[in-house]
Design a protein that fits this description.
The complex is a heterodimer of chains A (441) and B (294). Chain A has 441 residues and is an alpha/beta fold. Chain A has 2 domains: 2-144 and 309-369, 3-Layer(aba) Sandwich (D-Maltodextrin-Binding Protein, domain 2), CATH 3.40.190; 146-307 and 395-439, D-Maltodextrin-Binding Protein, domain 2, CATH 3.40.190.10. Chain A is 50% helix and 14% strand. Chain A has helices at 2-22, 35-51, 65-77, 92-97, 105-111, 123-129, 152-157, 169-182, 194-205, 212-215, 229-243, 258-263, 277-283, 322-336, 338-348, 355-364, 366-369, 375-381, 397-412, 418-439; strands at 25-31, 55-61, 84-88, 102-103, 139-144, 146-151, 187-191, 247-249, 267-273, 289-292, 310-317. In chain A, the strands form 2 sheets. In chain A, strands 1, 2, 3, 4, 5 and 11 form a 6-stranded mixed sheet that branches. In chain A, strands 8-7-9-6-10 form a 5-stranded mixed sheet. The longest helix of chain A has 22 residues, at 418-439. Chain A is globular, with a radius of gyration of 24 Å. In chain A, 51% of the residues are buried. By secondary structure, chain B is mostly helical. Helix content of chain B is 71%, strand content 2%. Chain B contains 12 helices and 2 strands; from the N terminus they run αββααααααααααα. Chain B has helices spanning 13-39, 57-64, 66-99, 104-112, 119-130, 136-143, 154-182, 186-194, 199-228, 231-237, 249-259, 263-288, and strands spanning 42-44, 51-53. In chain B, helix 2 crosses helix 12 and helix 5 crosses helix 7 (154-182). Chain B is globular, with a radius of gyration of 24 Å. The chains are: A alpha/beta (441), B mainly alpha (294). Chain A binds chain B through residues 66-67, 69-70, 73, 76-77, 94, 97-98, 100-101, 242, 248-253, 257, 260-261, 264, 266, 396, 398-399, 402, 405-407, 409-410, 412-413, 415, 428, 432, 435, 438-441, and chain B through 43-50, 52, 67, 131-134, 151-154, 239, 241-244, 255-256, 258-262, 264-265.
Chain lengths: 441, 294
């Protein structure tokens, strides 16, 4: 009897251990896409799983971007890391510094003999995620850029042309005043992302350096310099507009209150990531939404530069078996297909990552059928990027952004002037950069 | 103490009996605390590839940082606010329920519910009610001419987090106060009433002193709650803002460690927080407890 049981369990163990060889190799993918975006992401993984039988990609939702990054780092330290993790652009500096933890994508694709052509990707996207030698370190997946949303119905009520969005900040002020004075809405405009839109993109659009050493691309010794004249002037204006009731602050980081202010028609204009498009359209049931590029100061620059990207890429983590990496490479090839890319881009509002996906959308007539859907891509591709509009790359940028948010709030509360707030944001930010440099050398 | 002792012939048995408790304490309390102390003297990259021993640099940096000193002040305000509000309201509710004969149990059950709500959910709930755009409270306050905006106004934000954090704790305090009130002998209160003492006089001279062990215990629990257990609520309502006005010490530990990935500084902060709570508890037991009548 006893012997039988032993035999049985041995046989069972043999069966159990043999089964993975015949079954699929599982690839875990930690991501930070919630709600509609998360469902779409699972659909993408499902599509890959159905396209072949050897590998199975399992997406796991790990919370917000910072939470996902923290979870992945903690998992790596405990040797429980996923094969793929989605990391937002702010974490790029942190990931790049962690050379022992990361399997660079260009190397993975070469090692595994998968087709890999960096020139097929959109230039601004590739530029943002390459190292100094031009190698792509992480797989571009969801990149976005901020755009301008406005309420056409309120524009009409205020006696404005609903088809004409404000081009410059002077017009934003003028339109806001008309809207508030006419009672068409309680406030002129609100915004998500003070850091990303009104500091980082503000500098890029007006060709001002955000930091030294090519905005940090040149190495970890870079320092912040975003207390430039344009940003100071802009923050000064925001404070004044806030006091006059033309502008309402939507909260720190992504501005959780900003979108409710816009879709509830309290504020007539709104700035947010292009990836917010699906959500805005779904929630703006009572009015028609117009889309436009971000406004700029025409007394500073005649032709604004391209905007810079946000969003996230997929990083491959070290410490997995060869088998898993084969699957990851196959999955990335699948992700790069124009059909997959175009579908993801059109559903979510993220940028098409490859030229082929953009062209496919044009052939399908998608941009004509959906006015405003190509604003983001046109804004990011316009003109020739300068050193100041290529993007920003700093370690611990999450913390530096927190400092920027806190200083902006101090400005709104009247504790500091715009110059003082930006000076101290730069000072605090530089301290954070030095910490990062010290802990990574 | 009596000199009569039970002598165990087996030398190992007492240790074996103590072992489960000791092991749990070591694994779940002492070991993590030691880890925190260790990494508070180090500087490390997030992935743990490079670790440098830097003595007290994490600590000296903290005390030179205006944000940290600010967080200390805000924590003190927050802890006092939460303790006073949650204990005050709980005591009031407990007195009311204690006077009810039949429906007391029913109210007790209802009043305990908030305690079962997860901190983040409680935070979101208050975030909705106080939301400057869609919330009901700012809408009502607007009618009185007050423009509530905790996104910009630091005092509004502090009031919001104190209310949100107290709300949850009221249930807990309430239960203890109800139990405490029920153990106050009726005969004492009745005797005082016959001597002509009014309800307020009776409460302050008889009931409140007899409640003091409960009050003392709750004060320690509440201060510890406000110091350690509230980052979920702050995260769900204000996220530490505006301009750091609701960043308490424990929220800063979370923000710097989990969001900022600065493990050294975060550890140093948690060690300091640990010391503060130890000191507070010692002070309370040493001086405040003398005034407690058991």
């Amino acid at each position: 009897m006893y012997k039988n049981a032993l035999f049985l369990s041995a046989a069972l163990a043999a069966v159990l251990s043999a089964s993975p060889a015949t079954a699929q190799t599982e690839i875990t993918w930690w991501h930070a896409m919630s709600a509609e975006l998360g469902e779409k992401l699972e659909e993408v993984a499902q599509g890959f799983n159905e396209s072949q039988t050897e590998y199975k990609v399992t997406p796991v939702f790990k919370g917000t971007y910072p939470e996902t990054l923290t979870a992945a780092i903690a998992a790596f330290r405990a040797n429980e890391q996923p094969a793929i993790v989605q990391v937002y652009e702010v974490g790029t500096g942190t990931m790049m510094a962690a050379q022992g933890a990361v399997y660079p994508v260009h190397q993975l694709m070469t090692d595994k003999g998968e087709p890999w052509d960096p020139s097929g990707f959109l230039q601004p996207v590739v530029g943002y995620y390459s190292d100094t030698e031009g190698n792509i370190l992480s797989m571009p997946f969801n990149s976005s850029t901020p755009i301008f949303y406005y309420n056409k119905d309120v524009f009409e009520k205020a006696g404005l042309d609903p088809e004409v969005a404000p081009k410059t900040w002077a017009e934003v002020e003028e339109f806001s005043r008309k809207i508030v004075d006419s009672g068409a809405a309680k406030c002129g405009f609100t915004t998500a992302w003070i850091t990303w839109i009104h500091t980082e993109n503000m500098s890029a659009l007006h060709d001002q350096p955000f930091g030294t050493l090519q905005n940090g691309f040149g190495g970890p010794a870079a320092e912040f310099t975003f207390n430039n004249e344009v940003t100071v002037k802009h923050w000064d204006n925001l404070k004044r507009w806030s006091d006059e009731g033309l502008f309402q602050y939507g909260g720190p980081v992504g501005g959780a209150d900003a979108q409710p202010k816009f879709v509830s028609q309290e504020c007539a204009m709104f700035m947010n990531s292009s990836a917010g498009r699906a959500g805005v359209i779904r929630n703006a049931t009572d009015f028609e939404v117009g889309f436009a590029p971000l406004p700029y100061y025409d007394d500073v620059i005649e032709e604004p530069k391209n905007s810079i990207i946000g969003g996230a890429t997929l990083w491959v983590l070290n410490g997995k078996s060869d088998e898993v990496y084969n699957g990851v490479a196959k999955f990335f090839t699948y992700l790069s297909q124009p059909e997959v890319q175009a579908d993801w881009h059109q559903f979510t509002g993220y940028l098409p990552i490859t030229n082929a996906a953009y062209e496919l959308g044009q052939e399908q007539g998608y941009y004509e059928a959906n006015p405003g859907s190509d604003i983001a891509i046109e804004q990011i591709m316009r003109g020739t990027p300068s050193e100041n509009s290529k993007g920003v790359r700093f370690g611990n940028l999450t913390q530096a952004r927190d400092a920027v948010d806190a200083e902006f709030e101090a400005l709104l509360a009247g504790q500091k002037t715009a110059q003082e707030a930006l000076d101290s944001a730069v000072e605090r930010g530089n301290q954070i950069l030095r910490d990062f440099e010290a802990s990574n050398s | 103490m009596q000199s009569k002792r039970t002598i165990f012939p087996n030398k190992l048995l007492p240790y074996a009996l103590l072992a489960p408790q000791l092991i749990i304490t070591i694994i779940f309390f002492l070991w993590p605390a030691a880890q925190a102390v260790k990494s508070s003297f180090e500087r490390e990259d997030p992935f743990g590839f490079r670790t440098t021993f830097i003595w007290f640099q994490n600590y000296t940096r903290l005390f030179a940082e205006p944000g940290y000193l600010n967080a200390m002040g805000r924590s003190a305000l927050f802890a006092i606010g939460v303790t006073a509000l949650s204990m005050g309201v709980a005591l009031l509710l407990a007195i009311c329920v204690n006077r009810l004969l039949r429906s007391g149990k029913f109210y007790t059950t209802l009043l305990v519910w908030p305690y079962a709500v997860a901190p983040v959910v409680a935070g979101i709930l208050w975030w909705f009610m106080f939301n400057p755009t869609i919330g009901i409270v700012p809408y009502l306050l607007d009618a009185f001419g007050y423009r509530w905006n905790h996104r910009v106004n630091g005092n509004d934000a502090m009031i919001l987090v104190i209310i949100a954090a107290s709300w949850k704790q009221i249930s807990y305090n309430f239960l203890f106060f109800v139990a405490g009130l029920q153990s106050v002998p009726k005969s004492l209160v009745e005797a005082a009433a016959m001597d002509g003492a009014g309800p307020f006089k009776r409460f302050w001279t008889i009931v409140f002193p007899l409640l003091s062990p409960t009050t003392f215990f709750l004060m320690i629990v509440n201060i510890n709650y406000a110091m350690f257990d509230t980052f979920g609520i702050i995260d769900g309502t204000t996220g530490g803002g505006p301009a750091g006005s609701t960043t308490t010490l424990v929220y800063k530990v979370y923000a710097d460690g989990f969001l900022g990935l600065n493990i050294g500084s975060s550890s140093a902060q948690s060690v300091i927080l640990m010391l503060i709570v130890i000191i507070l508890t010692v002070v309370q037991f040493r001086w405040v407890e003398r005034r407690v009548q058991y």
